[in-house]
Known about the structure:
The protein is mostly beta strands and 209 residues long. It is built from three helices and 14 strands. The strands form two sheets. It has an eight-stranded antiparallel barrel. The chain is globular.
Amino acid sequence: MSGWTDLPAPDEPVPERYRGVWVRTLLETPEGRDTSTRVHWLQTGGWHADLRVPQGADPATPGGRTQLQGFCGLTRITPGQDGQPDVCTWHRRWDIQPPRSTPDAGFMVFETPGRVIETGVHGPYLEIWERLPGSTGRYRAQAELDAQGQPTGVQRFVAGRYAITVRPRTAPWPGDLKPDETLAQLLQRHPGAAPGLLDFDMVFGQAPD
């Protein structure tokens, strides 16, 4: 019986104010500003998916695929104490890029219900996120099943009328990963691994009815 099944929910649900699809309008780092990368962070009641497509990157080409950033996994919110902001930590279960050496965590300050400012816990950066209209009301995190009822590896995350679908690569990372190297840098060292490491899909679009 092919179809979809719900992924297990976390013990501590993500608060409602974080749920939906958030579009990044600004990134500031010590290296500069970025307003051109298309970034969608989709947050359900526990699971997240985040896709980042730099301007000019063509996901249909090997070079464009190496420039993509995207990941999915579970989100944990640690409420702020004594006037301090919440800390949001994204625990990545799968990632387009090689593993990071530091956790992905940010201090979160809501300027309005539809606008949140994120600043770095483990490094200096600032991101501005705005919630996409039509991205609330229903949330699903699902795994695809094949005709025998077994997981195919494909996952789908839904918020409102939007979805991010992920087909992870099956190839393992090489055993000589360097700290915080990019997928492009890794493939320069291991060009023969490109077919396997680039065999993935991550797509943002309309959710099925």
